[in-house]
Design brief:
This protein is α+β, with helices and mostly antiparallel strands and 268 residues long. The chain is built from 4 helices and 14 strands.
Length: 268
């Protein structure tokens, strides 16, 4: 399926400001990039590098004045990978690949080692078969018990805050899911990108878990995990996948996001 994504960041820059961005799509299995564009207006030179998680990153200095950063992508993508039957098995910690181990550790926004997180994880999924059943129970519980609302959380909101206040947006839903899954020793990472079916279009966050020897997608915002996605980046939590990180005096004035399929979905 061909899918298109587009985002436009508009800034007021009051002093030359160094930024790093994570706005170009990953090239990986299941996601073939047909076309992409990355443009800064007014034009400034930028460099590119790949971070520790394999995410393509950009780095530049924004000039004083109004600055827009526009990124576009067209990709051939598969629908969200369904969970096979029988469900993939839980992988014992001792059998995890080395490059997966850090996804069971606590991180800045996902305090999976806290007693309060442990108590909630056990309440939701403690009696279930380790692995997929626990993850889906956590995803469903968050969808049903956390209220989706803009403007009530911010860049410092953690999984523990969400567990207590039970309100937030996709980033917050994802952080809580990650913390709960990691508490049960299930490797879990945060993924950001475009999703074709959002009520309010925005850049989206979801989570992926390592079960049965591979990564599977789960989305606590949705009633059921489905749809087409273009992945931009993944990491331990929002600290690793920030779309724009600035080191200076600039204010984001607006963000416009588009995501759509370029051909009709197959009949069910």
């Amino acid at each position: 399926m061909k899918m298109k994504g587009r985002s436009i960041f508009t800034y007021d820059v009051y002093a030359p400001t160094t930024v790093t961005t994570m706005l170009r799509p990953r090239r990986q299995e299941g996601q073939s990039i047909i076309m992409e564009g990355f443009n800064i207006e007014p034009s400034v030179p930028f460099t590119e590098y790949t971070d520790l998680y394999g995410n393509p990153c950009q780095r530049t200095i924004l000039p004083v004045g109004k600055v827009t950063i526009t990124t576009e992508v067209q990709a051939q993508v598969n629908p969200t990978k369904p969970i096979p039957d029988p469900a993939p098995a839980y992988v014992l910690v001792g059998d995890l690949p080395d490059d997966v181990m850090h996804y069971i550790l606590p991180s800045r926004y996902c305090q999976s080692d806290l007693h309060e997180i442990n108590m909630l994880a056990m309440e939701i999924a403690g009696n279930l078969t380790p692995g997929y059943a626990q993850v889906e129970a956590i995803r469903t519980w968050i969808h049903q018990n956390i209220k989706y609302q803009y403007g009530v959380t911010n860049a410092s909101t953690t999984a523990l805050d969400v567990a207590r206040n039970r309100i937030g947006v996709c980033r917050d839903f994802t952080h809580l899911a990650i913390a709960l899954c990691r508490n049960l020793c299930i490797p879990t990472r945060m993924t950001v990108g475009y999703l074709d079916r959002l009520e309010v279009m925005d850049l989206h966050a979801w989570f992926e878990v390592y079960i049965g020897g591979e990564w599977f997608t789960f989305d606590a915002v949705q009633e059921k995990t489905d749809g087409y996605r273009i992945e931009i980046a993944h990491g331990r939590d929002a600290a690793d996948v920030a779309m724009v990180t600035q080191y200076g005096n600039a204010t984001l004035q607006s963000l416009h996001v588009e995501a759509e399929l370029l051909e009709p979905e197959p009949a069910q």
